[in-house]
Amino acid sequence: MSWIRSFISVCCLLTITYQAQAGIVIGSTRVIYDGSKKEASLSVTNPEKDRPYLIQSWIDNLDASNTTKVPFIVTPPLFRLDAEQENTLRIVRAGGNLPQDRESVFWLSVKSIPATHKTDENQLQITVQSRIKLFYRPTGLLRNQAANAYKSLQFNRKGNQLEVVNPTPYYVSFYELNVGKSEIKEADMIAPKSSRSWPLPSGASGQISWQAITDYGGISAKETVSL
């Protein structure tokens, strides 16, 4: 039968050995660039016992349609990371005009390309690209105020939409946002001094509760408010 032949073919393909790389370990899930400092840094570690990697890093605008030159560079942009070694990426400001009354955000990408050996024939080599957010925090915007920014969010019900207003100069990234027992799964990040709206789940009612992601990639305490 055709399905049996297909099944056998798949099984044969799966017998080809492959190696899924454990890959590099990035030291944080986000980077905060303090505008009063000359640079920000991010550690990159290769935990593998015998395989080096080629590490390539770069920064993009958050909005892919934004063609403005990114005002940061990563150094070194390309380097070899040997087994059981660590290196540090340094993010440096390279000009550009950024708002000084609020945060700006960019994408920091780190790609790991595994080295190949003669013994790797018939093995699948996997290139892994990690992408984390880079937040630029101008001088004068304090870290302790950023930690509490999520507490200042304002919520309004407009028909079947939940409007969220962020009056602060900081980005707020939701870990979770709930109305009663209903989670708003689309909720992600809200920019400084702006608002966003998300559809309310059918039948959602009760208190609003939310948690945010901190500067260190942790989860904040839960806040609640009546809608």
UniProtKB/TrEMBL annotation:
Family the UniProt entry places it in: Belongs to the periplasmic pilus chaperone family.
Keywords associated with the record: Chaperone, Fimbrium biogenesis, Periplasm, Signal
Sections of the chain in a coiled coil: none
Pfam family, one: PapD_N
Protein name as annotated: Molecular chaperone
Subcellular location: Periplasm
The keyword Chaperone is annotated on this UniProt entry: yes
Predominant location: periplasm
InterPro entries registered for this protein in UniProt: Ig-like_fold, PapD-like_sf, Periplasmic_pilus_chap, Pili_assmbl_chap_C_dom_sf, Pili_assmbl_chaperone_bac, Pili_assmbl_chaperone_C, Pili_assmbl_chaperone_CS, Pili_assmbl_chaperone_N
Naturally occurring in which organism (per UniProt): Yersinia nurmii
GO BP annotations listed: cell wall organization
Domain of life of the organism encoding this protein: Bacteria
Positions of the Pili assembly chaperone N-terminal domain: 23-141
Signal peptide residue numbers: 1-22
SUPFAM superfamilies to which the protein is assigned, alphabetical: PapD-like, Periplasmic chaperone C-domain
A GO cellular component annotation in the UniProt record: outer membrane-bounded periplasmic space
Gene3D superfamilies membership: Immunoglobulins (2.60.40.10)
All copies of domain Pili assembly chaperone C-terminal, residue ranges: 164-220
UniProt KW Zinc-finger keyword: no
